TrEMBL record:
Annotated region (Disordered), positions in chain: 1-40
Transmembrane segment boundaries: 87-107
InterPro entries hit by this protein: FkbM_mtfrase, SAM-dependent_MTase, SAM-dependent_MTases_sf
Compositionally biased tracts (Polar residues): 13-37
UniProt key word Transmembrane helix: yes
Protein name: Methyltransferase FkbM domain-containing protein
Organism: Chaetoceros tenuissimus
Amino acid sequence: MIRMRSLRKVHGQNVSCRSLDATSDSSNHSDSPNISQAVRRGSLVEESIEEQPMHIPRKIPTRGLQRQTSFQKTSFRRSKKSDPTKILLIVTIFSFFGMSILTFLLLHPEYQRDIRQLTKQWSFNSVDSIASEYMQYPKQCTIDQLKEIRRQLDPKACAETGISRPFQNYCSLTKATSCPDTTNYLEEYYHELQEEYIKQKMKPSDIEPFVGISVGCNKGYDALDIFRMGTFDRNLKKADWKSQMDTRIAKSRCGQDKSPSFEVDERIKIPRRGQMHCIEPILTTIARLKSVSARTGYERKGFNVVYAALDDRNWTAKMPFNKKMGSEENGLDEDCNSQTANQKDCEKETTEVDVMTLQQYVTKNVPDSYPIHVLHIDVEGYDANVILGAGKDILERVEFLQFEYNWKAAWKLHHLADVIDLLDENEFTCYWAGKDQRLWRITGCFMLYYDIKVWSNIVCVNRRRNQALQQKMERVFEETLRFRKSYRTRVLYQKLKLDVVATDALSTDVEMMTSKYLKI
């Protein structure tokens, strides 16, 4: 390349090869060198480059080459920017498609609900779930985990007595979950929300109202404590409620009237807004609840006492009027139109009560934009029916669910496995609710002896709506598996011979143990 460049310069007769010849003498320079000299000197340059390549850069005008290279690059860049119309057209096209997609999302009804959730008033309960993806389908329990659950919730007494005499309450599930203690997950979660409420210096108008529903409200103690917990209102006092209740009222089975109330921080001056729906079908009880709610002023705070009953269909129940106020055994199975009713009671005064589905009740009484933070169901055997009557639209609004499982009324027609599967399809993870602040996961950990219908309590969390609470409950489950206590009951008064069904329920064969339905 250097030789050819030297020849071109010689033909042009405007550049001397002296600057390129490292061995030439100054006396031999000529203004008009001949071609042979140029060729000879060009070859000498080539030989000089091959023999002494490091000396060549000092003789080559590199600065000019750099300017030339820089000029070429600059020219190239200018050529790229030379047509701003194309750039403007591309930006316009991308902007058009972006706005089209955004408009579609804004107008799509399925996304509008999520957008309202994001843009509505600030809510504690959606902070964690919106910030990250909700927990995926719970992992299946391993065989070791199932065996540990069986060790703690020993199935032997359940198989011996639960099938034929569940009312004796010898099953470990009854012993472990008779009066659940949710202090270390549900109350802990709301204590954290309360702390955020204080730190953020929020006003009641800044956050969405708390919504709680108690189906089978009975004496109202559970509903009142849930309402206090959700609204951070320390003026909702269980002692004031109890002082207004009739002394002749039936005692609470789990001592709710004596248990400590949810602790509210004194720094909270203005509580959160809220509404609590206390639904009860026994007229004598509902009359007392309405009276107490009015006298205490809790009705004005949003504690709504409702005379109604919930089921999976609409109908009108004919209930005996003379039932003891606050009795916890009264349910729709006492409807005088059914075969299970006590006909002696039905011969006396009766009263009619409207029975509706949870979906109808919520649609009528709870604004569409409100989630249902706590749904508590205790309806003496119709719990599964209430859940079935909720429908998908209502279930997806529920964050925390608690219900009772037993052998009574409509539970005779349902399998627990089917209810758990239904809830799982609607993003709920369910647990046996322990009375010692323990949880044993049912979702993904079902075992055959759970199909023995005994009195017990179950809690579920919507893992899509409330990831923070889900994680707390899963942590409690993992801690429970390290718990050494076992809820065993020995039937001492007689020895029972296990039948085939009971033997199947006790099987540790993996396929049998993890099946769903007992052949009763």
